[in-house]
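Thread: "does anyone have the structure for this chain?"

Original post by V.I.:
We have the sequence but no experimental structure in hand. Need at least a predicted one for the grant figures.
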Amino acid sequence: MKTKHTLHTLVAASLLVMAQAASAQIAVIVNPKSPLASMTPDQVSAIFMGKSAQLPSGATAQPADLPESNAIREQFYSKAAGKTSAQVKATWARLTFSGKATPPRELSSAADVKKHVAGNVDAIGYIEQSAVDASVKVVLVVE
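Reply from O.Q.:
Generated one for you, tokens below.
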């Protein structure tokens, strides 16, 4: 009986963690010295999907991605670009093969994305809003 109770507790805890991840707010971040003060969802989508984005004069944005297996990445592309992982992968395969664009730099964790963006004035990335600190500037929150 105790094993059954423990199993129910573990399942409930797992579901709670997944629900929190599914509803996480995602912050699109840039270097604090970036001329970008804010961005629209369309601008962010264009940058991360290999399209040209209308940015202020002199501003550039080199995207940094989380690993494909990261749940926040799936949520980001779903909400910011309206694309599934398979659609994103197919788009980048097509763009890379044709030589039209280079995919975002994939980093191993949110901490690595934040560190990369903090150290590169042209970098743009996304992390959970709860992980934002003064080393980066939020230009858009994706909910």
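V.I.: this helps a lot. The CA atoms of residues 45 and 80 lie 6 Å apart.
O.Q.: and The radius of gyration is 17 Å.
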